[in-house]
Amino acid sequence: PKVVMNGALVWAVWHDERNGASDIYLNRSTDGGDSWLEDPIRIDSDTEGVNSSVNPTLAPVGEGGIAVAWQDNRLGGNDILFRLSEDGGDSWPVEEFRMDTDVAGESQSVNPSMIVDGDRVVLGVGAVYATLTITSAGHLSRMVADAVEQIMQRHGQAVPAHHAIGAKVGR
Fold first, then answer.
1. Which of 59, 64, 65, 58 lies closest to 25 in space, CA to CA?
2. What pLDDT, on the 0 to 100 scale, is given for residue 27?
3. What is the per-residue pLDDT for 170?
4. In this model, does residue 47 exceed pLDDT 80?
5. What is d(CA 164, CA 54) in angstroms, rounded to the nearest whole number?
6. 129, 23, 121: which is closest to 71 by C-alpha?
7. If you write DSSP's letter for every residue of the chain in order, what string do you get?
8. What is the C-alpha to C-alpha distance for residues 25 and 15, in angstroms, rounded to an integer?
9. Burial of 94 by CB count in 10 Å (0-12 exposed, 13-18 middle, 19+ buried)?
């Protein structure tokens, strides 16, 4: 599991196979870890236990928000998916955001990591990263760092015109 704290708020995220294939779960404490939710919150939104969702990471965002990213194989290969709760985990958007720059499910993106600076979340996978800015309306606006195009070009890869980063992932 990964654990982060923001004041008295504490969150833990992990993957387990209670329903078959791995799913992502989050639990939280509002009193510094003295008490926790009775039932953890399932974070990945596909059908329980069908696809493998593993290697979650999390970061506190702003005052009480929490961001979670993980690798997920529901579209074929492993993609990195992202969800943000602005209210500490009480509510989540209906769909995840796919963070990869390649065609969905064609590559193996694994082991995401995140850091936060105020309302900015930097999500990294290997040498490629994206910066997400959380707007006041709670929407994600993202800018692909110049380094993404430079890295892709350095490795002889064409930069796709559609940039799949941030595409919504259906169930």
1. 58
2. 97
3. 35
4. yes
5. 21
6. 23
7. -EEEEETTEEEEEEEE-TTSS-EEEEEEESSTTS---SSPEE---SSTTTS-EEEEEEEEETTTEEEEEEEE-TTSS-EEEEEEETTTTS---SSEEE--SSSTTSS-----EEEEETTEEEEEETTEEEEEEE-TTS-EEEEE-HHHHHHHHHTT----SS--TTEEE--
8. 6
9. exposed
For position 156, what pLDDT does the model report? 56
Task: Tell whether the model's pLDDT for residue 34 goes beyond 80.
Answer: yes
Task: Give me the phi and psi of 3, to 5 degrees please.
Answer: -130, 135
Q: How does pLDDT run across 115-152, given as a tens digit for each residue?
A: 777 666 777 766 555 655 555 434 444 443 444 444 44
The pLDDT assigned to 118 comes to: 67
Residue 73 in this model has a pLDDT that exceeds 90: yes
Q: Which class for 91: exposed (0-12), middle (13-18), buried (19 or more C-beta within 10 A)?
A: exposed
Token representation of residue 144? 């692909």
Strand 167-169 to strand 96-98: parallel, antiparallel, or no bridges (unpaired)? antiparallel
